[in-house]
Amino acid sequence: MKAALWIAIASVGALATGAIALNRDEPVNSFWLILAAVCIYLIGFRFYSKFIAARVLALDDNRATPAERLRNGYDYEPTNKWIVFGHHFAAIAGPGPLVGPVLAAQFGYLPGTLWILAGGVLGGAVQDFIILFASLRRDGKSLGAMAREEIGKVGGYVALITVLLIMVILLAVVGLVVVNALVGSPWGAFTILATMPVALFMGIYLRFVRPGKVLECSAIGFLLVLLSIFGGQWISLSTYAAAFTFSGITIALAIIAYGFLASALPVWLLLAPRDYLSTFVKLGVVFLLAVGILIVRPELKMPALSRFVDGTGPVFAGKVFPFVFITIACGAISGFHALISSGTTPKMLARETHARYVGYGAMILESFVAIMAMIAACVLQPGVYFAVNSPGAILGKTAEAAVATITAWGYPVTTEQMATLAHRVGEATLFSRTGGAPSLALGMAQIFSATGGGDAVLGFWYHFAIMFEALFILTILDAGTRVGRFMLQDLAGNLYKPFGRVSWMPGVIVSSALVVLGWGYFLVQGVLDPLGGINTLWPLFGIANQLLASIALCVATTILIRMHGAKYCWVTAVPLAWLVTVTFTAGLQKIFSPVPRIGFLAQANLLTGRSAFNARLDAAVTAVFLILVTVILLDSLRVWASILSGANQRQVRESAFVQSQLSAEGL
Amino acid sequence: MTFWRYLRALLRELSDETAYERHLALTGSAHTGAEWKRFSDERHRAKYSRARCC
């Protein structure tokens, strides 16, 4: 009976995948995408993750986890597996799985969707699961600590420096997403500005008025944020609109100043209350989007494959291989997840077998979020999608020129259509709103408004989606700046002791300023880039993130080789080989391609002054990423060869076995 | 665990309210503003020194 059920799921999955893959020229209903995804996830979870859990990792519930052995009531605490699942998912879900698929939709819905499904099930979920397991067996150690132990000191330091560099690029690119979403939008700018005093109010409320009442305080904060969306609408229609209409560079400078202040201010005042609020809003919106898509089941207007698979795409340049893999990023596999899987989560797991649900399962859910983002982008008319996501330098200076360019590509759109849409969502224009956030917000707004309210609520939902994206991106910006500051202080503390003290004010100010200047420089560069910045920064971020995943997979492969020799190392070695191939191809193309829109050096040769310097800097940053990962890869190969040849003993570095005393109840 | 019980438990965990209760039980303290301040400062120090996901 069970076998018949799984055969049915596999057949439906194959049918649905066939329907989305083989269909040409006719609109496809998004339900087929959902059906294909759900069947593939079920099969991946039921069979592949079970195989990894039972054969490869040999999870053992008799073995006490760090949460049980080191229980301290704070970070080490055995927790119900579904609670840990929600906690872990909230921690891994960022803007990446939302923005990446939206940008990758320029190739059509098919390439990105196939990579989200295959990469998620065979790569991302495997990485998260095995790193979580490894950390679980090593007292909750971090990825850097495991890299040092398993591969060597060089690997550990390379991992630390890579994380710091990636954070700089990440913060710049997410900052750019916010800038592009708020440029020339008084409604959006007012709403986001209003979240600042709301967060300050929440901080004071939680500290002095009702200490400890986080849920109550977040509920009040949410109501105030909703009010600010209505306030933004009123502002946009009033004479104050001009006062809240900002240029890209003004918003970028404001975000940089904000990043510096938020990093230096006490956490309880601004960062923590907004983090609570953005976590709840994020989970709520993901849930609402899933419900909305299931109710509306919209048709995908984007073709399966667009003409831009040849590399001439206006959103970002480069052929479908390798750039679709770089662009999707976190929706399929993310190096940053390895930091979470070796951070808080292993300290909360009550049983080893829960690692399968949390590590593998949460990544599957994140992959599903990426599928929903792909759907939200592809429900837009392709002409509208390209009008929103293409930079002005490609489309032309006027609305007429823009629609003529896009229509000539084979994706008809009219100025009236764009003007009506902009009016309905309360924006002056929707042309060249690059970065992914506005088109995602448009798609989400169409889905939400189709569940009830129609055009009358389109503007509200559009700005709700913009608020949701900006809210948690800003939280990442200030939390990321703070983490970067700690890392820098940690490194600089080796040279000058007081700098290492996180409460030493001169150290706090200097290190915060350095981190902010680091990502701020790339952010301003992106804002001034005539191609919209995303063309440069998103691939750079994608390459960096996938290279961090390569480091995590190097650690995971080393651990599997220490456990079983060569027998099961393919589980992580195959995704590793694929990632290395893809990221090195993309990285080398970004540096050396003779096409100026792709290759940084070719771009630099065409430019002068600061722009030429920026292009060379981008080439240098990409080269540094590739070199760092080459170092760790060679170091890993050396370790693997020495173990497999028998030159070194196959030593598994796990904590000693302790019998679990926990009862199964409530876990 | 029913869905609503799970949702409530998850929200309380994400909001650190459950962790605060554990802290009170562990230290044998009563809830006061000062105690919350002590707990949340320690909690946030650990939470915001870790890399955030993208």
Give your account of this protein's structure.
The complex is a heterodimer of chains A (667) and B (54). Chain A has 667 residues and is an all-alpha fold. Chain A has a single domain (2-184, 246-644), classed as Up-down Bundle (Amino acid/polyamine transporter I). Helices cover 71% and strands 1% of the residues of chain A. A two-stranded antiparallel ribbon of chain A has the order 1-2. In chain A, α7 packs antiparallel against α8 (153-182), α8 (153-182) runs antiparallel to α26 (609-644) and α15 (354-378) packs across α20 (437-450). Chain B is mainly alpha-helical and 54 residues long. Chain B has one domain (3-47). Helix content of chain B is 70%, strand content 0%. Chain B has 3 helices and no strands. Chain B has helices at 3-14, 17-27, 33-47. Chain B is flat. The model of chain B has no long low-confidence stretch (mean pLDDT 90).
Mind telling me the CATH superfamily name of chain A? Answer: Amino acid/polyamine transporter I
Low-confidence blocks of residues of chain B: none
Number of helices of chain A: 26
Residues in β-strands, percent of chain A: under 5%
Structural class designation of chain A: mainly alpha
Number of domains of chain A: 1
- How would you spell out the order of helices and strands of chain A? HEHHHHHHHHHHHEHHHHHHHHHHHHHH
Number of strands of chain B: 0
Helix content of chain A: over 70%
Output the helix-strand order of chain B.
HHH
Q: What fraction of residues of chain B sit in β-strands? A: under 5%
Instruction: Round the Cα radius of gyration of chain B to an integer and report it.
Output: 13 Å
- Strand neighbour order, sheet with most strands of chain A: 1-2
Number of strands of chain A: 2
How many helices of chain B?
3
Number of domains of chain B: 1
Q: The CATH topology of chain A, please?
A: Amino acid/polyamine transporter I
CATH level 1 name of chain A: Mainly Alpha
Overall morphology of chain B: flat
Euclidean distance between termini CA atoms of chain B: 31 Å
